[in-house]
Amino acid sequence: MPIRADYHLHSHFSGDSKAPMEDMIRQAIRLGFTELCFTEHMDMDYPVREETPAGMFEVNTDAYLYDLLSFREKYKDRIRVRFGVELGLQPHIADRNSRYIRSFDFDFVIASTHVVDRKDPGYLEYYDGISDEEGYRAYFKEILDSVRSFSDFDVYGHLDYVIRYSRSRDENYSYEKYADLFDPILEAILEKGKGIELNTGGFRKGLKEFHPCNGVLKAYRKKGGEIITVGSDAHRPQDMGSDFALAAEVLKECGFSYYCTFEKRKPAFHKL
What is the C-alpha to C-alpha distance for residues 135 and 208, in angstroms, rounded to an integer? Predict the structure, then answer.
């Protein structure tokens, strides 16, 4: 397998996972990975609902780091364990997010969008009273506003996450249909010297392509983008590294020769 590092992983330190961190590390070793990066959720001001009580997606970073450092030492001769976070962006909390990132020596920061107008597109109620296209456009506009208002991240994760749970999903979806928003998003990411993520999680949900779709990957590469990480978005060991062989082929088809890992916020490039 040409990709030997999973850079989007959640353990029980994320509110939507029950997986012990050590089980995730052992699975990565079994898969032959040389490196993994935990990216626990930090989504401040996430909307409270019955299924998502206050603080559910705000990692206890001190406890998380304590365990990570312990396991990093325990498995140092078998795999590299990186300290990352998936940071939920909303323009109005940009200052809070900045203070948080400055408080810890992360190896890697994924920026992501899980909330638009106080709603998570992961729930169908996000689309109440609007079409799927309107929901997609609102989501992509939120990403654009977030990229323009916040810079302390390394890659933007699952750029088209919004399609994963909609009514029509990717049936009438393409890069070309939303290029008027994707192009400025990608240009803003590149202007800041940041990258994007290929996230295989949507493929497990039945989508035809990874996040983001091939059209977005090709547009990013055509615009000069080179920094790209690969993550399974696994919340349990059995999903780690899912479809990574196919991900490598997709990246090559979209014009990439390398994928990236990070240490102390600096990218390293690995041949596909």
Answer: 20
- CA geometry: angle 147, 167, 121, nearest 5 deg: 30
* pLDDT tens digits along 58-109: 999 999 999 999 999 999 999 999 999 999 999 999 999 999 999 999 999 9
Query: What residue type is 66 in one-letter code?
Result: Y
CA–CA distance, 78 with 45 (Å, rounded to integer): 38
C-alpha of 110 from chain center: 5
Domains along the chain? 5-271 (3.20.20.140)
Measure the CA–CA gap between 130 and 11, rounded to whole angstroms: 34
pLDDT single digits (tens) 142-153 = 999 999 999 999
The pTM is what? 0.97
The confidence band for 50, taking pLDDT boundaries of 50, 70 and 90, is confident
What residue type is 154 in one-letter code? D
Nearest to 8 by CA among 162, 191, 156: 156
For residue 88, the surrounding DSSP H or E stretch is strand 80-88
Q: What is the DSSP letter of 204?
A: H
Average pLDDT value for residue range 128-133: 96
What whole-number distance in Å separates Cα of residue 254 and Cα of residue 250? Answer: 6
Digit-coded pLDDT (tens) for 12-28: 999 999 999 999 999 99
- Pick from 127, 136, 14: which is nearest to 68 by CA? 14
Positive or negative, the CA dihedral 88, 94, 96, 102 is positive
